[in-house]
Amino acid sequence: MAKILLAGGGIGGLATALGVARQGHRVVVLESRDTFTELGAGIQLAPNAFHALDRLGVGAEVRERAVHIDELCFMDGITGEAVARMPLTEGYRERFGNPYAVVHRTDVYAPLLAAARATPGIDLRTGAAVTGYRQHRDGVTVRLSDGGRVHGDALIGADGINSAVRRQLVGDGAPKVSGHTIYRSVIPIERVPVELRWNTVTLWAGPKWHFVHYPIAGGRYLNLAATRDDGARQAVTAVPVGRDLVLNGFPGLGEVPRRLLELGEEWRSWVLCDRDPVDRWTDGRVVLVGDAAHPMLQYAAQGACQALEDAVVLGGLIGTEAGEFEQRFEKFVGERRERTAAAQVVARELGRRLYHPEGRRAGERNAMLAALRPDELYRKVEWLHGARVGEGRVTEPPLIGRRTGTVR
Q1: Long-range pairs for 353-360 at CB < 8 Å and ≥24 separation?
Q2: How far is Cα 327 from Cα 296, in angstroms, rounded to an integer?
Q3: For the residues of 170-191, what is the DSSP string, one character each?
Q4: Given the DSSP bridges, would you call strands 176-188 and 200-206 parallel, antiparallel or unpaired?
Q5: How far apart (Å, rounded) are the C-alpha atoms in residues 151 and 341?
Q6: Of 60, 95, 99, 310, which residue is 20 to 30 A from 131 by alpha carbon distance?
Q7: Are 226 and 213 in contact (CB under 8 A)?
Q8: Which positions are catalytic?
């Protein structure tokens, strides 16, 4: 049994702690905040996420909290016409072995936290911000922001897109600002007209903007997320913004989505960021997972899903004995690198090619999507949604050009 240090107590961090602790290791989770909590609003969980959650022992709890969606709907945000629909009911669930669902982030986080607290080998510490690490012959020592030191046999960096562990390990500077600003609001479902309470994830695409909405928290709330390709240059997180600023930011938005957008209140804004894929996530006894390793834009709805997959794969590879962490971490990166890099690039491409085109390119996009039958749509997402990590069932990702951002 080894003592594994883990920087970061978010969804990816707690999931990884569970995966590693189930191999008999002691895991010390070092969380920078004063409490274990999760910020944000709604997220989407594809079948690959539920498979990972099942492997971690919390799938049933998350399913109970989730809204099991009937369709993904892609709409023309100007005309209001339905462009493409991907059914998510019997045929989809039979094909991929799990539902497609939407949740509030806390609906995933709370079961993971409860499971971590119930696991004797997991030590949860708050107010412990990791700022760096030093390796030596018999392990790793991490530095904390308060000047403290913690020693362990290995270190897992799960400290997010601004990871201090990555800063030392990769040294690739600040995250890449996408130039896209997202405005988020969560409203009680009682405020939504009955005829607009759809059990779908609906996306309205317009020129350099799009608007997404879906129910969360067991259907008690509606999650609103409106994104503008506005050239933003500075990263911001959860900054309050006025209602008029949001409503004026989506010119031409059709009648139905406008009615929904106008329901939003207490809007907050984020500027979306990611990083380029890198080959190196490990340094001796140190390894990165989740957003610390492969942060991605929201457009493929796979950020949390890929972090959960990481947790399962690393838990399966780390073994039950102390030692050989360098080889085990290298094998982990070898198994995960191409798949997560493909997800990063595809997320960027979806934002560019599908969500924000204008004029002629928007018409071409609509024609292309409208021509796809449900089974063709399923084939396009199978490499992501159909993965069952830990069981050897992972379809090869598409060939990608990492530097050019092309998908072949």
Answers
A1: 354/74, 354/205, 354/299, 355/203, 355/205, 355/210, 355/227, 355/299, 356/205, 356/207, 356/208, 356/209, 356/210, 356/229, 357/205, 357/207, 358/206, 358/207, 358/208, 359/207
A2: 26
A3: T---SPEEEEEEEEEEEEEGGG
A4: unpaired
A5: 32
A6: 310
A7: no
A8: 214
- DSSP reduced 3-state for 294: coil
Give the span between the Cα atoms of 246 and 249, in whole angstroms: 5
Task: Assess whether pLDDT exceeds 50 at residue 406.
Answer: no
Q: Which of 386, 188, 407 is nearest to 302 (CA)?
A: 386
Q: Which of 59-63, 164-168, 262-266, 404-408 is least confident?
A: 404-408
Pseudo-torsion of CA 343, 299, 302, 129, nearest 10°?
A: 100
Average pLDDT, the chain: 94
In the predicted structure, residue 207 carries a pLDDT above the cut 70? yes
Q: Can you give the pLDDT at residue 407?
A: 42
Number of other residues whose CB lies within 10 A of the CB of residue 129: 18
SS3 148: coil
For residue 196, give both structure tokens: 């607009």
Collect all residues with Cβ–Cβ distance below 8 Å to 60 and sequence separation of at least 6.
54
First to last CA, the chain: 44
Looking at residue 252, what is its pLDDT? 94
Token code pair at residue 241: 């913004």
Backbone angles phi, psi at 85, to 5 degrees: -135, 135
In the numeric block, which tokens belong to residue 1? 């049994």
Dump the DSSP string for 106-137: HHHHHHHHHHHHT-TTEEEESS--EEEEEEET
pTM above 0.90, yes or no: yes
